[in-house]
Fold this protein.
Amino acid sequence: MDDQGPMRLSEIRLRFHKELDDNYGKEEVESFFFILTEYFNQIKRIDLSLQPEFQIPNAAVPKYDDALVALKNSKPIQYIAGDTYFYGLRFLVNEDVLIPRPETEELVDWILNEIKAGTEKSKLLRLLDIGTGSGCIAISLAKHMPESEIVAIDVSDSALDCAMQNAKLNAVDIEFLQCDILKESYSFLEAEDHYDIVVSNPPYVRQSESNEMKSNVLNYEPHLALFVEDEDPLQFYKHIALFAKNNLKDKGLLFFEINEYLGEEL
């Protein structure tokens, strides 16, 4: 967009479709455009339909230029806008954390349904989220289990910073700790009264599977949270299962997301 003067959003919209439709498809480009108008100019889709000639100021035009270039390079829209929604809640995201995915919402659903069906559903529960990333699992559970005690850990300080921002954004109380579950230095997690639930969405993509991944994931999402060595792809599951064996209460529950190719080995 060479003209840096005031521009109608309708012109930018056409430019997005012209340059991105072949890569993403018309519907997805339309979604990108409206996400960005709300992010950059606080204009919702319905408002723009009522003001089709709406113009943006000079200063906003380069932001759309940059977003267009980023999208051409397959950068996820969530990282461009800096947030996404998960389980009905808003989460800040950046390239230090994985973008929350719909299948992880299913994991949260599963946990909540198990709690509702359990005999201790009215009891205060203690829960540990291992590899919390953006905090999406722990925070979503905290919203639905406000009386429970939730601890969330991650090896990455940058990820924990993001998770703590998200806990504040969603007004939940969670204890965040930096910890490497692969090492033997996590005795401070071993509470005397143990945990009712341990949940984890650990790294589980083998390095050899990277050639099957789309560039928007491979080039932007944190490899620390994605990949494991081919020689020991179950290393996180082994360590977490051992921790759970020693630190879950009787009838405690352990929940994982798993690699579809490794289900039988688990």
